[in-house]
């Protein structure tokens, strides 16, 4: 059930009547709702960190949400991935990117609402993933440098369309 929730972005992406039938069957088979809820909760400090990322959002080219927060924290990767998911809730945003610090570099979590291949974008930054969920870890760069690199790639994406 957890995989179904994650893969469909809580039943909002790539769903069909079959998706809901399978979810219903899993619930009938005893999927634990309390455990599911627990798996999708964050510690307070991770949630606050995510809020700091979201406070630093900018819209690039009118359709890419780019945000980040440069203070290190143990849960930064999780907070950034959840922030990237949240940024897709902005009207008109086709893809989102959330930066966070890594030891010796910068990480970025990328998400797509379905029309932008974030896997290809993250590959250009040395990372990978899937069409709608991807990430990269950039060693030896600052957040500002990583941000500039992403904006160059997004500019190229705009020109290709």
TrEMBL record:
Gene3D superfamilies: 3.10.310.30, inorganic pyrophosphatase (n-terminal core). SUPFAM superfamilies: DHH phosphoesterases. Residues 79-156 form the DHHA1 domain. It comes from Syntrophaceticus schinkii. Pfam families: DHHA1 (PF02272). One of its GO terms (molecular function) is nucleic acid binding. InterPro entries: DHH_sf, DHHA1_dom, Oligoribo/pAp-PDE_c-di-AMP_PDE. This is Phosphoesterase RecJ domain protein.
């Amino acid at each position: 059930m957890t995989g179904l929730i994650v893969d469909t972005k809580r039943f909002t992406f790539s769903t069909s009547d079959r998706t809901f039938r399978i979810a219903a069957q899993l619930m009938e088979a005893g999927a634990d709702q309390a455990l599911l809820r627990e798996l999708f909760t964050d510690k307070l400090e991770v949630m606050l960190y995510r809020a700091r990322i979201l406070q630093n959002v900018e819209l690039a080219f009118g359709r890419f949400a780019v945000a980040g927060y440069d203070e290190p924290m143990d849960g930064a990767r999780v907070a950034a991935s959840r922030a990237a998911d949240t940024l897709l809730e902005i009207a008109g945003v086709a893809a989102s990117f959330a930066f966070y610090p890594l030891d010796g570099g910068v990480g970025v979590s990328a998400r797509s609402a379905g029309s932008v291949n974030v896997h290809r974008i993250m590959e250009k930054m040395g990372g990978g993933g899937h069409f709608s969920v991807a990430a990269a870890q950039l060693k030896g760069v600052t957040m500002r440098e990583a941000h500039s690199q992403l904006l160059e790639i997004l500019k190229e994406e705009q020109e290709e369309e």
